[in-house]
Amino acid sequence: MKKIQMVDLQGQYQQIKETVNSSIEEVLNSSAYINGPLVHEFQADLEKYLGIKHVIPCANGTDALQIAMMGLGLEQGDEVITADFTFAATVEVIALLKLTPVLVDVDIETYNIDIDALKKAITPKTKAIVPVHLFGQVANMDAVMEIAAAHNLFVIEDNAQAIGADYTYKNGTKKKAGTIGNVGTTSFFPSKNLGCYGDGGAIFTNDDDLAHRIRGIVNHGMYTRYYHDVVGVNSRLDSIQAGVLKAKLPHLDTYCNARRIAAQFYNNAFSSNPHIITPKTKSNATKNCGEICSTCDCHVFHQYTLQITNGKRDELHKHLLEKGIPNAIYYPVALHSQKAYTDSRYNESDFPVTNELIKTVISLPMHTELDQEQLTYITKTILDFVN
Ligand SMILES: *Cc1c(COP(=O)(O)O)cnc(C)c1O
């Protein structure tokens, strides 16, 4: 059996080596390392793939979130609501910009922002909501958009983990994750579903004015060379990374499908175990897909995350490592409990789901190169331990 990896970037590279290498060589031969033609070509390809008017590439997914918030003109003291159960980047940029982060609990089935908790957190100071499409499952965007419209709030989708996913509205229309709110952001960190070979990120919007502001902000606040109209940042996707991404984008749907096939294997293996809760896929708030469907594409399994309900999650984590099965706890600490983000306004009783998930979740190897032998070994090892 091939050695099991949490993410197999090498195996994936071997399949696409020729196109990736020739993209990189193109950059080396042109020396257009910054802002070269491949950056523009990748940007145009991604706009087409997502069905969105503007993609603005930038240096990473954290910058993308920060720049989106700067572009929307959010100001000190504005409250921005996001999920308590996510990677810290989301709340970090809110705090960095001197906005006020307001963390709310998540839904036990989707691990995404809880709609009732979101409604309760709204105050006259609330200016924006940041739904995070965690682990590759799109949040309940029908509800988020309704709430945003009713309270005149911006919606910034943190799509770092769900690029390629489709959201199906209650009325049946579909949109790509990240293209539903006022602005969407993503990360091309190597292990993300569309990863480059270094750092990278992007911001998406259909709003022409916002796109114009953001293009200036990523480039030192310059709209005309050496005239700085606003305070900006320096945040660029370099040409080599754009070349890697241009070579990989045509494979994204196949990659998402490979992940779903592995997830379905896991789900089938674990479904009847009383101590294991498998991830649910929901095309929207009203329809629970039950089984993982390759047609609705609502979940792209950036992570495959189980809940272990018999109190043995930490023991399982260690046992699997001993058996050569990498695994990870995403995330072991709720954001509201992190030293940097505690706030006297929070009560532990506001976060029952997050406080439960941090004790029960475990993420299994998930990538595009998992084979049946590896999946069989992983599921058997887990079932032998948990039973
Ligand atoms: C990875 C990630 C980010 C940050 O992306 P970087 O490119 O690492 O800066 C932001 N939000 C979420 C949910 C992420 O998973």
Outline:
This protein has 12 helices and 14 strands.
Summarize the structure in words.
The model has no long low-confidence stretch (mean pLDDT about 95). This protein has helices at about 10-30, 35-50, 60-70, 90-95, 115-120, 140-150, 210-215, 240-250, 250-270, 315-320, 350-360, 370-385, and strands spanning about 55-60, 80-85, 100-105, 125-130, 155-160, 165-170, 175, 185, 200-205, 220-225, 225-230, 275, 305-310, 360-365. It folds into two domains: about 10-250, Aspartate Aminotransferase, domain 2, CATH 3.40.640.10; about 250-385, Aspartate Aminotransferase, domain 1, CATH 3.90.1150.10. The chain is globular, with a radius of gyration of 21 Å. The longest helix is centred in the first third of the chain and has 22 residues, at about 10-30. The chain starts with 8 loop residues before the first helix and ends with a helix. About 40% of the residues lie in helices and about 15% in strands. The protein has about 375 residues and is an alpha/beta fold. Pyridoxal-5'-phosphate binds near residues 90, 158 and 189. Pyridoxal-5'-phosphate binds near residues 160 and 201.
